Amino acid sequence: MTGMNVAVCVKQIPDPAAPGSLHPDTKNLVREGKLILDDSDSYGVEMSLQLAEHAGGGEVTLVSMAPHEETSGLRTALAMGAAKAILVSDDVLAGTDALGTAKVLAAAIKRAEPDLVVAATESTDGYTGTTPAQLAELLGLPSVTFAKKIDVSDGKVRVERQTEAGFDEVECPLPAVVTVTAGVVEPRYPSFKGIMAAKGKPVEQLKVADLGLTPDEVGAAGARQEVIDVAAAEERKAGEIVVDEGDAYERIIAFLEQLKVL
Amino acid sequence: MATDKVWVVAESSGGTPTSLTLELLTKARSMASVVEAVAWGGDVASTAGELGNHGATKVYDLGDMGDALPGGRVAAAIAAQIEAGNAPDVILIGTTYDGRDIAGRLSAKIDRPVLTNLVDLTVEDGVPVAHHAIFGGVQMARTRFTGDGPGIFVVRAKSFAAEPAGGSAAEVVPVEAPDTGPTDAARVLERHVEERTGPQLDEAEIVVSGGRGLGQADKYEMIEELAKLLKAAPGASRAIVDAGWVPYAYQVGQTGKTVKPTVYLAAGISGATQHMVGMKGAKNIIAINKDQEAPIFSIADLGIVGDVHKVVPKLIEALKARG
Ligand SMILES: Cc1cc2nc3c(=O)[nH]c(=O)nc-3n(C[C@H](O)[C@H](O)[C@H](O)COP(=O)(O)OP(=O)(O)OC[C@H]3O[C@@H](n4cnc5c(N)ncnc54)[C@H](O)[C@@H]3O)c2cc1C
Ligand SMILES: Nc1ncnc2c1ncn2[C@@H]1O[C@H](COP(=O)(O)O)[C@@H](O)[C@H]1O
Hints:
The complex is a heterodimer of chains A (262) and B (323). Chain A is of the alpha/beta class and 262 residues long. Chain A has helices at residues 39-54, 72-80, 98-112, 131-139, 192-198, 219-223, 248-258; strands spanning 6-9, 12-14, 35-37, 60-65, 84-88, 116-120, 143-153, 156-162, 166-173, 176-180, 203-206, 225-232, 240-243. Chain A is built from seven helices and 13 strands. Chain A has a nine-stranded mixed β-sheet with strand order 9-8-7-10-6-1-4-5-11, sandwiched between helices. In chain A, strands 2-3 form a two-stranded antiparallel ribbon. Chain A is globular, with a radius of gyration of 22 Å. Chain B has helices spanning 19-31, 44-53, 70-83, 97-110, 220-229, 238-242, 273-276, 308-322; strands spanning 5-9, 12-13, 16-17, 34-39, 58-61, 90-94, 114-124, 127-134, 139-145, 151-155, 171-174, 187-193, 206-210, 233-236, 263-267, 284-289, 302-305. Classes of the chains: A alpha/beta (262), B alpha/beta (323). The complex binds flavin-adenine dinucleotide and adenosine monophosphate (AMP).
């Protein structure tokens, strides 16, 4: 196979370092302010770039659903080397759940006709971890989740898939959906040249109607779930803090003895 | 709406249901009068006793899946049952590798949403209510489905205790897993088992975890030695798993294992919310960190502000001296 087109799902999220909050009325996650490329997806972007390079060319297309035509996270991934992006942004998407997201992503990905679809195992802010399997089912594709190593050759993808006991070597014909874990590759830092080039790369902006989806399939209506209430969780209290003066280990021993585990 | 029938996706390993499966069955029993299990893997009959003992009256046996990945097949089998009129009100699935695949594929197949990352589940006015820890466990949100049809819930391990009910073995009902066509094309070529000695991470009474504060990969040996002396399981933060110091199976936290030991000792771990969500259910927490401001201290019963390279070796010496 010469050349391989990869569609990589990239979520643009609020800075995880800033404390999250829920909208007081809708109880949806507040996604105000600048969004950034989810770190979890930077691994997928890097992996896709490497696989396309290795296959002797082909394009890496970013696919994202985000509010307010947000592109700053996409620009980061374009600066890393992705060729173009498809962005679905629409007011009717407010309150969309994982299944609705998968419907949107599936419809957008179909336009790119990729050989391989890459996503992260779970997003940093939503972490449902179900979107990729929903996406695969909607696309009618096989999927291999939890990849810690990926190779492509002869129209097949070979994955080391994490398991409870270790890992499985899994082989799957393309096209397929693969989800990557953090650490699968070391994401590159965008170079200055990459950042400049990213500014001119195409970002196709789409609405829900462009994808042939109806508003009731997505958004809060499609989610068919509601938050009843949110309350502060029972807090664990801090106990005793001891500054080590060379004998703190004795405190640990005494603590373990007191618990009768020694 | 009523919650009468609950299905539990019952994963097993080596002919024994996983502890998470038994936890889910125990919960299911408290929710509904009819509890049934869905299982696969060639040795379902040998699990029927334990499944029954934890409340399942029936186990749908999907048979051996050979080298296939279970996600699509299990989802298709459940969807086929629902289509044929045998629909549960609630489907409980564990937050596991295959569990997420099953939940995702099933959700898309039957066009029903999924509620994930549950730490508790109650039935209120006949409606199942999911409890989620959000923002790293600082807040608890309660959610419910608004539409009809089976509710799919994905539940984290260690959310409930498994308790036998003393029931007789579940009736084994063979079910054909439907042909899932091209979505079923992935095949396992080889399974690699990473050897671990000592107690299982998610079952150990004591867990000793190391983080980036250890400084370098070979310093993890210190953690392993300490764990051995305490008959504990060694664990890790994601930072050092990603760095390749230890296998993923050691990871504690949101993306790793949830542990609830009697004692959790964190050495050189900052206490990121994603780490804490996996260990703050421990009965007692000991933290060693050189930074007095480290978030881990906010939940530690005993916090030692100190250098792991000094405290841990001394602890090891002292434990050895005790014999
Ligand atoms: C979607 C997502 C999922 C995640 N899932 C997980 C998960 O499952 N598990 C997990 O652990 N993390 C997870 N993380 C990562 C998490 O956010 C943190 O990055 C990670 O837990 C940090 O690991 P650490 O505490 O070892 O490293 P750091 O945060 O770098 O902390 C190192 C600590 O060591 C201390 N230290 C340094 N030197 C010494 C010394 N000599 N003696 C004593 N102390 C010292 C420092 O003061 C510091 O507090 C996830 C992140 C995301 C985005
Ligand atoms: N809005 C989105 N846009 C693009 N990709 C997404 C979106 N939501 C989820 N994904 C992909 O699906 C993965 C799993 O997401 P989640 O189900 O939220 O844990 C993410 O890491 C992304 O790769």
